[in-house]
Amino acid sequence: MKIALIxxxxxxxxxxxxxxxxxxxxxxxxYYKETVRYKPIVMGRKTAESPDFFFSEKRNIVVTRQAxxxxxxxxxxxxxxxAFELLKAEPLVFVTGGSQIYKQxxxxxDYIYLxxxxxxFDGDAYFPEFNEDEWKIVKEDFRTSDEHNxxxxxxxxxxxx
Length: 161
What we know:
Number of domains: 1
Structural class: alpha/beta
Number of helices: 4
CATH class: Alpha Beta
Distance between the termini: 17 Å
CATH superfamily: Dihydrofolate Reductase, subunit A
CATH topology: Dihydrofolate Reductase, subunit A
Largest sheet: 8 strands, mixed
Order of helices and strands: EEHEHEEHEHEEEE
Radius of gyration: 15 Å
């Protein structure tokens, strides 16, 4: 099983505020949906409850400490390691957030699909810092803001060295 983190983060690593995105980038959201649509995804409870949440058509695993948590369309695990164990036969698993889940999953990640939103934002959720010297960029695609996308951004795909 390979593990990929997928996120959009600002220059100061903000990924959200009040459980919502802080920018409007439909091109990035389309990219995200197409990337994870047929892959299993793992997320934390707050991400699953976000209005920006997107279900995979494969499997959707939520990691929460709430023993009685239930939500239609989600499989529930009490730890990230339990989620990875449940998905061990899958060739590629995406971790979709939030902050705590990204931080826990980063040491196990083989790939990071990071949309870098060019700007600095106020937020309360952050993508974890990572040492770029331990990763190689295998894809880089810069996009400018336009009538649909509020900010410049770059799609990056990093692969662990």
